[in-house]
């Protein structure tokens, strides 16, 4: 799996664990919306963008 649209708006901790469970080749990295990141593409990384309440603000995808 490379995208998790059904997780939009979910809680960060449980959902990051769910992403890693469904695709054990990736690391789900929780990051606050608006934070700087590297621009390189990595097939073993999923950015998990959250707001101040810890809710996903973007569909998590491999990148």
What does this structure look like?
With 63 residues, this protein is α+β, with helices and mostly antiparallel strands. The chain has a single domain (5-50), classed as 2-Layer Sandwich (Trypsin Inhibitor V, Chain A). It is 17% helix and 19% strand. It contains one helix and two strands; from the N terminus they run H-E-E. A two-stranded parallel ribbon has the order 1-2. It is globular and about 30 Å long. The model has no long low-confidence stretch (mean pLDDT 84).
List keywords for this structure.
63 residues; alpha+beta; Trypsin Inhibitor V, Chain A; two-stranded parallel sheet; 1 helix; 2 strands; globular
Concise overview:
Helices cover 17% and strands 19% of the residues. With 63 residues, the chain is α+β, with helices and mostly antiparallel strands.
* Approximate helicity band: 10-25%
Q: Helix count, per DSSP?
A: 1
The strand count comes to: 2
Q: Report strand %.
A: 15-25%
Q: Can you name the CATH architecture?
A: 2-Layer Sandwich
- The succession of helices and strands, N to C, reads HEE
CATH class: Alpha Beta
Strand numbers in spatial order across the main sheet: 1-2
Mean pLDDT: 84
